[in-house]
Design a protein that fits this description.
The structure holds two protein chains of two kinds. Chain A is an alpha+beta fold. Chain A is built from twelve helices and ten strands. Chain A has a domain of 62 residues. Helix content of chain A is 64%, strand content 11%. Helix content of chain B is 51%, strand content 13%. In chain B, a hairpin with a 7-residue loop joins strand 1 and strand 2. Chain B is rod-shaped, with a radius of gyration of 35 Å. Classes of the chains: A alpha+beta, B alpha+beta. The interface between A and B is large, with 88 and 81 residues.
Chain lengths: 397, 375
């Protein structure tokens, strides 16, 4: 076969309108069902997004179901109810016994803040839930009829993630590339497509160039702080602002460049390789344009809402009788509806374009070898990411 | 072959692509797939065809077969993709069950058992285990720690009410303070209390008073102005002392620490979720406090009786609140979680009828001084 036949391109074919409609309707149903529909809603949005991704003309498929997510959530609730309820209260009790008499308002505030440290009790569970959620999503992803999958290992991941985070924090971020690389390697080396195994190659030190702009930003902020200390408020202020923006952009640039490096050093089934060319500039542009559009539409929606409130609901509320209750409920409903619209708009206008850009920058080399990959066995998906849903990790998709 | 279109078949065993010719056998009610790379033509009964839902591409259809399996849903792993619009229309017309989502046998039972188990676990934790633990831990905590926590709580409240510095809102007029101390002495005379009471008045027009952990009681200026007289203020104070003695504030803080995370977890990241969590907590708080309030009321009546203070003023105070409750949304914050004011008023009135001789808790001059405590 010629070299060209061995390359397939990934494409993203989702559109804003249908995704917005889907996200809005599922959010509305979620609200009306007091949150229960969220499992089905998330599943339907995933089905849409997965089916928008295609490799070599063949679309991906998401085969999870809302029902199994709901069932997994019920199991997670039983375990978390016991763990969280009891652990939180015991930690709170010990927090109380450490209390000394506050001598100032600041100290009193610090002590109240100290009580919230009890939330640390859920940190290991969050990492555990993240790995499990990833495993479930892979187990429910198919391409050309063949399943993806991941091995068990959520506790190992939680332990490593906590260790790496601790190192990163203690070294003030210097070891961030080490964390990024090793956690990605832990996950990649346990991932499969059919009977083909993924392997993460490369070394963590190679991620340092990706940090360039992040470090420049941090350096500018430090210089700004120095200038402020040396009594030059104008230069100090300017440097801090520029440094802050630079660091924000630098962080996105780090994530993009780390993604490129890690993707291009992944290997599937011995000799299938990947190329990824997402651009930081393009992503930032998409986010800015998307945010502008979303805030414009939301601004109009809220203005319309305010006009409606002053013209229709306001007088109804002043009127005697049950009018004010009806008005209040109506207003609250419209307000929540506008919020739901905001969530759906940002999914369709910000999240989706970024996904589309990243996906369509990916190429697979050695694709003719894909035909040799055999199906893998069904994975129950454990709790169907019930823990992630209960702890609310994982975001929109 | 007539009506034959191109499709792509994946056998569910490997990631190989199989280009196929697809036709509908109307007589047999089958979809027939044939291609060079297939061993033999496949026959898919139209009745068992299922399409992928929420598909992003309107111009393509991905089909699978309904079949018993151990997978997440009862489907054969093989897939067929079609993009011929006329074929898609024909299949849609011929297959009424195309968009059905089939369930494994026994799913309903699984759903019921797990749902009941989860509800039972949450109810057990929220209404049995957490309250019991809170009661036990509240008695274990050293009194001086509790007092320190109480000071932190009152400091928080002062800040929330707008005090720039701690103590800015505290009312310290000496004559008023003396009247307040006289009232406390009258109420607690001869009583064996576990806590050293620290009552302070804050300069705020809210009709409110509360007991923080460790003997801290806070009275708002609004209560002095709107409650209707010194005996009513004494009744409210006695009620708060009841909370102090029962360590209610500490127990509630412990309970809330255990249940807040749980509630937000149950409801998830719903829009308006904060409102739902707030309402849920409010509801639980109400179910916890109802009992505590009834006991604090009983404690207050006993204290008033022993101090020889007329509980008719308490009844009058509750009557005023009951009127407010009738007005709808502007429920005073202080009573939002309390039992119905009308019932509490009649309990206080019944008590007043059985009371022997009573005398006012404060003289006219003392009452004027107390009302002027904030200057």
């Amino acid at each position: 076969m010629s070299e060209d036949n061995q390359i397939i391109n990934a494409r993203y074919q989702g559109q804003r309108g249908p995704l917005f409609g889907l996200a809005f309707v599922t959010a509305l149903l979620t609200m009306l069902s007091l949150g229960i529909y969220r499992f089905w809603g998330k599943t339907r949005i995933r089905r849409y997004i997965w089916s928008s991704v295609d490799g070599g003309g063949d679309a991906f498929e998401y085969t999870g179901s809302g029902l199994e997510k709901f069932l997994g959530f019920l199991v997670a609730i039983v375990i978390l109810a016991v763990y969280l309820g009891v652990v939180q209260m015991i930690l709170f009790y010990f927090g109380l016994t450490l209390f000394a008499e506050p001598t100032s308002a600041e100290m009193a505030l610090a002590q109240m803040a100290g009580l919230y440290v009890t939330f640390l009790a859920i940190v290991p569970l969050i990492f555990f839930a993240q790995y499990r959620a990833r495993r479930y999503k892979l187990a429910r992803t198919r391409w050309r009829g063949v399943r993806f999958g991941a091995e068990k290992g959520a506790w190992g991941y939680a332990l490593r993630a906590m260790g790496h985070w601790l190192l990163t924090i203690v070294t003030l971020g210097i070891l961030l590339p080490r964390q990024t690389f090793w956690l990605e390697k832990y996950k990649t080396d346990r991932s499969w497509y059919g009977d083909g195994r993924f392997v993460q190659e490369g070394r963590w030190g190679a991620l340092y160039p990706a940090m360039t702009h992040l470090l420049i930003g941090v350096g500018l902020i430090l210089a700004g702080a120095l200038a402020l200390a040396l009594q030059s408020p104008f230069i100090g202020g300017a440097l801090s602002v520029v440094g802050y923006v630079w660091a924000m952009v630098g962080f996105i640039s780090y994530r993009v460049r780390a993604f490129i490096y890690l993707t291009e050093h992944k290997l599937l089934d011995g000799d299938i390789r990947f190329e990824a060319r997402p651009e930081t500039r393009k992503i930032i542009g998409l986010v800015i344009v998307g945010s502008l559009v979303v805030s414009l539409i939301m601004g109009l929606a809220f203005a319309a809402l305010a006009a409606l409130a002053s013209m229709v609901v306001g007088p109804a509320m002043m009127a005697p009788g049950p009018g004010h209750i009806v008005g209040l409920v109506l207003m609250a409903g419209l307000y929540l509806g506008a919020l739901l619209m905001g969530g759906a708009l940002s999914l369709a206008w910000i999240t989706q374009p970024v996904i589309a850009h990243v996906i369509s920058s990916i190429r697979v080399r050695g694709a003719d070898r894909l035909a040799d990959i055999r199906q893998r066995a069904y994975d129950t998906g454990a709790d169907a990411e019930g823990f992630a849903d209960a702890l609310d990790v994982g975001g929109a998709i | 072959m007539q009506g034959s279109v191109a499709g792509t078949y994946f056998d569910g065993q490997s990631a190989g692509r199989h280009p196929v010719e697809v036709t509908i056998d109307e007589a047999a009610g089958d979809l027939i797939l044939s291609g060079a790379s297939l061993d033999a033509p496949q026959r898919w009964p139209l009745a068992r065809l299922r399409a992928q839902g929420d598909h992003a591409r309107r111009d393509a259809l991905t089909l699978s077969l309904h079949a018993p399996s151990d997978d997440e849903s009862p489907r054969d792993p093989a897939r067929l993709t079609l993009s011929d619009p006329r074929m898609i229309t024909r299949i849609r017309a011929r297959c009424p069950d195309l968009d059905r989502s089939d369930l494994h046998r026994g799913t309903t039972r699984k759903l019921l058992t797990r749902g009941v188990a989860a509800l039972a676990a949450v109810a057990l934790i929220l209404f049995v285990i957490l309250p019991r633990m809170a009661d036990t831990l509240a008695t274990l905590i050293p009194v001086e720690r509790e007092a320190a926590f109480g000071k932190a709580v009152t400091a928080q409240i002062e800040r929330a009410l707008g005090a720039a510095r701690l103590g800015d809102l505290t009312c310290e007029d000496p004559a008023g303070r003396a009247a307040l101390d006289a009232m406390i002495a009258r109420l607690t005379g001869g009583q064996d209390l576990q806590y050293e009471l620290k009552v302070k008045v804050l300069d705020h027009d809210m009709l409110n008073a509360f007991a923080a952990p460790g003997g801290q009681v806070v009275v708002m200026r609004g209560l002095l102005e709107k409650s209707g007289g010194p005996d009513a203020v004494a009744a409210v104070l006695a009620h708060e002392i009841g909370h102090v003695e029962r360590r209610d504030a500490t127990r509630h803080a412990l309970r809330a620490a255990g249940s807040a995370g749980l509630l937000s977890m149950l409801l998830g990241d719903v829009t308006g979720g904060t409102i739902a969590v707030f309402l849920g907590e409010r509801l639980m708080q109400a179910s916890y406090t109802r009992e505590a309030e009834a006991e604090a009321d009983a404690f207050a009546l006993k204290m008033l009786n022993e101090a020889g203070i007329d509980s008719a003023a308490m009844a009058g105070f509750f009557d005023e609140l009951a009127k407010d409750e009738g007005k709808g949304p502007q429920l005073p914050a202080y009573f939002a979680t309390h039992p119905a004011s009308a019932d509490r008023a009649s309990a206080a009135r019944d008590n007043a009828r059985a009371q022997g001789t009573t005398r006012p808790v404060l003289s006219k001059a003392q009452w004027t001084a107390l009302k002027g405590i904030c200057g």
